[in-house]
Amino acid sequence: MLRRMRRAGSRFCPRLPAFPRAARAAALLALPVIFGGWLSGPQSTLDTEGPVAESQRHLFYTTLWVTVVIFVLVASVLAYATIKFRARTSADEHAEPPPQSHGNPLVELTLIGLSVAALVVIAIPTLRGIMYTYDVPEAERAGAYEVTATGFQWWFKFDYPAEEVELPNNAGRAPLTVANELVIPAGRAVRIDLRAYDVIHSFWVPKLAGKVDMIPNRGNHLWLKADRPGYYWGQCAEFCGESHAVMRFRVIALAADEFAAWLENQKHNARDTAAQSAGDNNDTAPAARVQFAAYEKIPRNTPGWSADFDADPLVNWRRQQEPRPAGSPPADAALIARGRALFTEKTCITCHTIRGHHIGGAPFAPDLTHVATRTTIAGGLLENTGANLHRWITDPDGVKPGNKMWRGVGGMSGYTVRDDDNTLDWRTHIAVTAPEAAALVAYLQSLK
Ligand code: HEC
Ligand SMILES: [Cu+2]
């Protein structure tokens, strides 16, 4: 029986000459190169666009190739020994083992020497990489741009210490604050101070830099540089609670003059409806359709895909900055005014700042002064469209489980509060009907 199986086996696995085997191994190793496209998604660390991520990629490949060489050497020796010294006959099975090299000082010292050499080959670029990625290089330090990033459950806040704005209610001046979309100058080193409000988060922009932890009560930092203007995906990379997986952000790198113009606009107080209507000038321009903020690209022939999508998300980001993007419906001043009143009535102002429109607001909720200039909302989870804003405002928990707008944060009540009788049940505190949401959305969309 056994013999029959062996014979059958040898029929199905004929011995192959050595060359095709090596060729097959090479083909296997080449797979990542051949299918490089698979590795070039928006969060690919192998398709880098800045020097910090590039140095990390080089280190990855150095380690990979050293280990590939070790693997090939060990596997070849193993294969050689297995084939050459295998028992062919039953006499072989009882024969003395071939001479052993165990304890041979030359072999052992060579192996130790080679291992040390391999470790050194990996250690030198590792140490160099650690030093390089730790902080902005000396030569670029003077010109580096500084921002502070703070992780919250489950969104990111970005402060610009060099840019001051007037806080509502004569509360003094404070750094410009935006949420979930970090806009930086391209081609310039950016030093990011990392903070956390509640639990440990981690800052990661795969194509630019990361990951570095954001730790409560502890200063941490990283630096990055975008080689050229672009729109990059970021992600919290440390499990931080139930909506961790949807805690994302975007980095938008701009040329110096465009960056300065962006800063200038963000520093202004929120626009008024009158100014909004004055910007009505391009209703007749054709609407551009751009697929931009969705986490996954919409594949061809599936609902939502359009042949007119522009592949460059930066194009759409720019379009989002225009006071009245081409093709958008005319602003409804009455509806916007109703939304603005509702923003106070519904106690949204206890958490959200809208500079120039409302007194109130707190540092633990996204600043909404220019929310309509962002391409995403809710921690980079949703595209910033009217429909998504509507969804978010009427049912935040359905969009992002457990979020702090739903549960409350920093002592402020959210859409739900704990029952007074301590039963640990939650009851509704803020409810937004569909018509109210429509007015709030019109208002929020006017905030450019
Ligand atoms: C308890 C504080 C609190 C209250 C009250 C509150 N929010 Fe929020 N809001 C938040 C927090 C926190 C987030 C971020 C949630 C996330 O992404 O995880 C948020 C996110 C948002 C966003 C998305 C902002 C962005 O850039 O991602 C909008 C829009 C918004 N809230 C509108 C409202 C409106 C309208 C109301 C009133 C009906 C309201 N909020 C009431 C805390 C609050
Ligand atoms: Cu997080």
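Residues 41-84+103-265 form a domain with the Immunoglobulin-like fold (CATH 2.60.40.420).
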